Amino acid sequence: MFASAAWWESINAGRIQTQTVTGSIERTYFAGQDSRRGDQVNSFTLRLADGSTVEESIYTHRRQDIELFVAGATVTMVYALDELKAQPAADGGVNYARSVLEVAVFVRKDQE
What is the DSSP track for 14-52? Predict the structure, then answer.
């Protein structure tokens, strides 16, 4: 069961695979259809070391921490990879649902 004690135990024991990605924020933007909130940043493009990009949502515990997500900041994200029942993936590999477990944002002083 997703997010249950057994699920977390499986992550900690390595039975559920995790993936860590690190990159630099290329841009931040608003994604969604609610035009009342269109001026608020809620998403970002993360440029990885191999040149690929990941589009991701901003996750914070405190609303004011959204300000940490600025172009040039380094972000590390850890995902749980839950194997889906529908197999195989379109590319012949394993089909996973990626759930964000942890986000760390590193901002240099000159980026603030």
Answer: TSSEEEEEEEEEEEEE--SS-GGGTTS--EEEEEETTS-
